[in-house]
Design a protein that fits this description.
This protein is an alpha/beta fold. It has two domains: 219 residues, P-loop containing nucleotide triphosphate hydrolases (Rossmann fold), CATH 3.40.50.300; 50 residues. Helices cover 42% and strands 21% of the residues. The longest helix has 18 residues. It is globular, with a radius of gyration of 21 Å. The structure holds adenosine-5'-diphosphate (ADP). Adenosine-5'-diphosphate binds next to strand 2 and helix 1.
């Protein structure tokens, strides 16, 4: 259904956001795309909806070569993908029901179908009793569910959710996950961009992990790919104190307190994580250098 065929994306000839990214997705799959901040996840999403085109390589969705798609066919193509953007919220001046109905109206549905489909979508995300509330009256989890319902309005073949559980407590996060599973069970391919280790592990499904623009693992199973965990265990046994050899002592101490004890966890830290761990600007720079050296040595 989807093929990223050796895709490289450079910005301004200097920044390589994605390098030789190659993967396929079958119809009906549920998979996660994970990676630390700056890894290239948003770039991948923007290439998928042709907001950007690859520097080399190509992308195929069904039989469509996405980068070559004429602009006038873009709206049609994008309707085949339901995207739940991280920062695009429901329209504040419309109720939840009106938000969904509006999305259906835009794509040219007739009144009767709008009514029926809105009902069905409210039910899919379990928000029938919240239909008359405005977005600001909904909880974070409800807003996210509303955004999912809206993304489903065009009956997409693939649903893409960017950090759908970000900022939600575990109960709400798992509720979102259940809804995404349900949508997947009805035949829709689902791609979830997520940093949420618990959510990713819970699903025991395919996880594509990118770091610095490259796919570093593509496994069925856990957030921590088997290889990385195994390697970490070996490292621990042989040289318990050398896991972060060469890294500044103050940063090692922060990691120790936060129970970050392997490189795989470090590679998955986001900018927000570093803020939470109270990294100074200097410490951030120092860690970036350390990670970059680590990845270069791995090559
Ligand atoms: P993620 O979503 O995983 O955080 P992004 O795809 O946003 O990663 O970014 C990947 C890299 O590309 C980063 O180094 C980022 O600074 C760079 N980048 C993203 N968008 C642009 C842009 N429009 N112009 C220049 N560099 C960009």
């Amino acid at each position: 259904m989807l093929l990223f065929d050796n895709v490289t994306k450079k910005y301004n000839d200097k920044i390589t956001a994605l390098e030789d990214v190659h993967f396929t997705v079958d119809k009906g799959e549920f998979f996660f795309l994970i990676g630390p901040s700056g890894a290239g996840k948003t770039t991948l999403l923007r290439l998928l909806i042709k907001e950007e085109v690859p520097t080399s390589g190509s992308i195929f969705f069904d039989k469509i070569e996405v980068p070559k798609l004429p602009n006038k066919l873009l709206p049609n193509y994008r309707q085949r993908l339901g995207i739940v953007f991280q920062d695009i919220k429901l329209l504040p001046t419309k109720t939840l029901e009106e938000n969904i109905a509006f999305a259906l109206d835009i794509i040219g549905k007739e009144d009767k179908e709008i009514k029926e489909t809105t009902e069905y979508l409210l039910e899919t995300v379990g928000l029938q009793d919240r239909r008359n509330l405005f977005p600001e009256q909904l909880s974070g989890g409800e807003q996210q569910r509303g955004a999912i319902a809206r993304a489903l309005a065009s009956n997409p073949e693939m649903l893409v959710a960017d950090e759908p559980t970000g900022n939600l407590d575990p109960d709400n996060a798992f509720q979102i996950l259940d809804i995404l599973k349900k949508i997947n069970n009805s035949g829709t391919t689902v791609m979830v961009i997520s940093h949420d280790r618990d959510i990713v592990n819970q699903m025991k499904t395919r996880v594509i992990k990118i770091v610095e623009g490259k796919i570093v693992s593509d496994t069925k199973g856990d957030y921590d790919s088997f290889k990385a965990v195994k390697k970490h265990k070996q490292e621990k046994k042989e040289e318990p104190k050398e896991v972060f050899g060469g890294l500044d002592k103050d940063i090692q101490e922060i990691f120790e307190k936060a129970k970050i004890d392997n490189m795989d966890m470090v590679l998955n830290l986001t900018g927000a994580d570093l803020e939470n761990l109270k990294f100074s600007k200097k410490q951030k720079e120092s860690l970036e250098k350390y990670v970059s050296n680590y990845l270069n040595n791995k090559k």
